[in-house]
Specification:
Elements: E1 3-8, H1 21-30, E2 34-39, E3 52-57, H2 65-78, E4 80-82, H3 85-91, H4 96-102, E5 111-113, E6 127-131, E7 141-143, H5 148-160, E8 165-169, H6 174-177, E9 179-185, E10 188-195, E11 216-217, H7 222-233, E12 243-250, E13 256-262, H8 277-287
């Protein structure tokens, strides 16, 4: 049976706890596989000693993006990395939304403001400002048009730290129908969830957010599945994906649009969907090259 590394990050005051890891480790070991929880930045780890390294909860990666992407490249040279290093690099910068739009995938309209760009912000509707490299709504905020000066200060802070900002209209349907997350594993829809609005008016951009408020199981509509599958088909190296999460909201026309495509370290929400654990284990073992057990 294979040895698998489940890759996470060190605990810290700004890092959420991955509640899925203990159950996933236990299930893999019960299936006969070796499974270790390892930190991505632990220099003592022999990555070549594993048959598969699965990025699970490296939730500090966006703060150290260059370092993390360098690790992914090195790790992929000595073992199989899931998802592949090329996918991780592409997805770690949310400018991938432009690639999806170019492929005809409906997305939330997005503009980008790099360091040095003028703070060209909306004046007629609510909008969201967040970094192109971020997780858990870090450095994200929702603004009304009359909060222009506050938004400009956020842009200045982000640009000073080297971040490119993305500006999107605030999708008001989130306040009514929420945001839906369709989770894929091993090339198949695993389960889906719905959560409420993360960004409430007046919440400072540098305040820690509740990333998944009101999370509940969800049955995706045919239209949601179709948009999610179109987004996945547009990913470079799409055939090599072990896992993916497609976050959807309703546009002004009531049709689903991609808010984000999570291919680096999406929360799997297994505690909400415990029946999905065996399918995740099966897919991980297959990716690691495990031989199917003989039937009696």
């Amino acid at each position: 049976m294979p040895r698998t590394a489940l890759v996470t990050c060190r605990p810290g005051p700004e890092v959420s706890e991955d509640r899925d890891l203990p159950a996933l480790v236990r299930a893999l070991r019960e299936a006969g596989a070796g499974a270790d929880v390892v930190y991505w930045d632990d220099d003592t780890v022999d990555w070549g000693g594993y048959d598969l390294a699965v990025i699970r909860s490296t939730w500090d990666y966006s703060w150290r993006a260059a370092e993390f992407l360098g690790w992914a490249e090195r790790c992929a040279k000595v073992t199989r990395l899931a998802n592949p290093a090329g996918v991780v690099r592409w997805n770690a910068d949310k400018r991938y939304l432009g690639d999806l739009a170019g492929a005809g995938v409906p997305i939330v309209p997005t503009r980008y403001l790099a360091p040095g760009d003028s703070p060209d912000l909306p004046v007629a509707h609510e909008y969201v400002v967040k970094p192109t490299s971020g997780a858990g709504a870090r450095f994200a905020a929702r603004y009304a048009p009359d909060e222009h000066d506050t938004a400009v200060r956020q842009l200045a802070r982000m640009h000073a730290e080297g971040f490119t900002a993305m500006v999107q209209p605030y999708v008001t349907s989130i306040d009514v129908s929420g945001e839906r997350a369709l989770q894929f594993f091993g090339g198949r829809l695993l389960h889906a969830s719905r959560k409420g609005a993360v960004l409430t008016p007046g919440t400072p951009y540098d305040q820690r957010k509740v990333a998944h408020p009101g999370l509940e199981p969800w049955t995706p509509t045919p239209a949601e599945r179709e948009v999610a599958e179109r987004a996945l088909a547009a990913v470079p190296e799409a055939g090599e994906l072990l896992y993916a999460r497609v976050d959807l909201v309703d546009g002004e026309d009531g049709q689903p649009r991609v808010m984000e495509l999570e291919l680096v370290e999406p929360n799997l929400f297994l505690s909400l969907h415990p029946a999905s654990v065996p399918r995740v284990v099966e897919a991980i073992l297959a990716a690691a090259g495990a031989q199917p057990a003989a039937r009696s």
